[in-house]
């Protein structure tokens, strides 16, 4: 008996969807808790709270991870139970605002980003994990030196 890979993937995906739905329905009342995170910038871990994350009203808001990989910035955060229809992403200057809601709660979190191209924003929401990617903008360094055109005699 041969199993088609696509059928196997669809079966696993269906099982995950059912498990996630059951967890949402049967979960005990939500108690305040802290969701762990780690910020990595240029391959170097940064201490939580020193860069990249701005806590909001509650300590139980999801804290995004910010990764810079080559010419891309990737933001990853947990949004359990949030569907694509209930997700809102906004880039306000160099701050990514993430809002979402599920049947149990609403989410609101922000994170600081390096200079990115807003037009290149892409996102994927799978099994309660949001991944947002951007292309970085070239960094400009202000040297304070101005150049004047060369004069010819």
Structural features, described:
The protein has 153 residues and is mainly beta. Helices cover 14% and strands 37% of the residues. The chain contains one helix and nine strands. The strands form three sheets. Strands 3-4-9-8 form a four-stranded antiparallel β-sheet, with no helix packed on it. A three-stranded antiparallel β-sheet has the order 5-6-7, with no helix packed on it. The model is unreliable at 30-34 and 48-59 (pLDDT under 50).
Number of distinct beta strands: 9
Average pLDDT, rounded to a whole number, is 76
Q: Provide the β-strand percentage band.
A: 35-45%
Could you name the ranges where pLDDT drops below 50 across 5 or more consecutive residues?
30-34, 48-59
**Could you describe the largest sheet, including whether it forms a barrel?**
4 strands, antiparallel
Describe the SSE topology:
Blueprint: H1 5-26, E1 39-41, E2 44-46, E3 65-69, E4 72-78, E5 87-92, E6 95-101, E7 106-112, E8 116-126, E9 129-136
Antiparallel strand pairs: 1-2, 3-4, 4-9, 5-6, 6-7, 8-9
Key terms for this structure?
globular, 153 residues, 37% strand, single chain, 1 helix, four-stranded antiparallel β-sheet, mainly beta, three-stranded antiparallel β-sheet
What does this entry show, briefly?
The protein has 153 residues and is mainly β. It is 14% helix and 37% strand.
């Amino acid at each position: 008996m041969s199993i088609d890979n696509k059928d196997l993937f669809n079966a696993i995906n269906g099982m995950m969807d059912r498990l996630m739905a059951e967890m949402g329905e049967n979960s005990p009342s939500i108690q305040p808790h802290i969701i762990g995170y780690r910020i990595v910038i240029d391959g170097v871990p940064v201490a939580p709270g020193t860069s990249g994350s701005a806590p909001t009203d509650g300590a139980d808001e999801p804290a995004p991870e910010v990764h810079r990989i080559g010419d891309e910035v990737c933001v990853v955060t947990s949004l359990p139970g949030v569907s694509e229809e209930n997700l809102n992403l906004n880039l306000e200057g160099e701050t990514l605002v993430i809002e979402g809601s599920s049947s149990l709660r609403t989410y609101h979190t922000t994170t600081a980003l390096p200079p990115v191209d807003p037009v290149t924003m892409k996102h994927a929401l799978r099994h309660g994990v949001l991944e947002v990617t951007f292309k970085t903008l070239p960094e400009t360094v202000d040297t304070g030196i101005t150049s004047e055109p060369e004069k010819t005699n």
